Inverse folding.
């Protein structure tokens, strides 16, 4: 009777998709199928309405916009990563490792990746680009291929028989047309031909947002501290589980 009770208790969770228990990653992810179906239906309905209202031209424009890697896709990718990672850490197999407070660690990881990509990686990449353009920058004729979001444009140019396609911010001082199909003057690095920009580089800090880098480092450090040790005094307090113990709290 005791063995039978253990078997019943061990299998009291509902099963989905032909016996996929919620203790497995497949069983935990299958509960999101209705949500994915709703999102797919919403996107299909929106595209159908676009086709009915604007015809084939507007429909092609909407598809071209969806294919671009924009802010919406970034947000959806981060959410998908968090959901999959969270459900993976809740499986019975992962819990055998004994890692505590995984939700808080995952939230710190997502915040650290977001801060690092938008406020640290991009400015440092700009500094690296400025360095090479100041060291061995050359002029080249480029052709604008398309207009993108946030004032940036895509353009292509040819150096030593090789064609390069990239994107950059289009200045609005009137000296650059920023119209698809127009020819412009771009600046590239002789030693790194793929490194280029439309605006002429004046200093290493051009477009690098040094103030943002300076003020972002503490928040990035706190996100890393949350991933390493959610209960340390430098970690973010996402919930009640990683509050400071009484011995570490500051006396009022």
């Amino acid at each position: 009777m005791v063995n039978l009770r253990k078997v019943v208790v061990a299998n009291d969770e509902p099963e989905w998709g032909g016996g996929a228990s919620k203790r497995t990653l497949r069983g935990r992810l299958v509960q999101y199928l209705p949500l994915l179906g709703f999102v797919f239906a919403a996107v299909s309905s929106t595209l159908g309405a676009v086709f009915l209202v604007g015809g084939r031209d507007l429909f092609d424009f909407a598809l071209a916009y969806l294919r671009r890697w924009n802010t919406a896709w970034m947000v959806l990718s981060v959410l998908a990563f968090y959901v999959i990672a969270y459900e993976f850490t809740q499986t019975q197999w992962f819990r055998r490792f004994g890692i505590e407070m995984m939700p808080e660690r995952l939230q710190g990881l997502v915040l650290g990746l977001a801060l690092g990509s938008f406020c640290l990686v991009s400015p440092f990449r700009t500094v690296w680009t400025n360095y090479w353009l100041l060291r061995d920058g050359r002029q080249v004729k480029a052709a604008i291929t398309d207009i993108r979001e946030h004032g940036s444009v895509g353009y292509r140019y040819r150096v030593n028989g090789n064609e390069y396609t990239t994107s950059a911010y289009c200045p609005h001082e009137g000296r650059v047309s920023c119209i698809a199909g127009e020819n412009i003057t771009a600046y590239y690095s002789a030693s790194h031909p793929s490194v280029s920009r439309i605006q002429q580089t004046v200093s290493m800090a051009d477009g690098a947002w040094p103030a943002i880098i300076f003020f972002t480092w503490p928040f990035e450090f706190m996100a890393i501290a949350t991933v390493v040790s959610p209960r340390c005094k430098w970690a973010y307090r996402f919930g009640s589980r990683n509050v400071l113990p009484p011995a570490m709290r500051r006396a009022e």
Notes: Residues 1-19 have pLDDT under 50 and may be disordered. The CA atoms of residues 226 and 235 lie 4 Å apart.
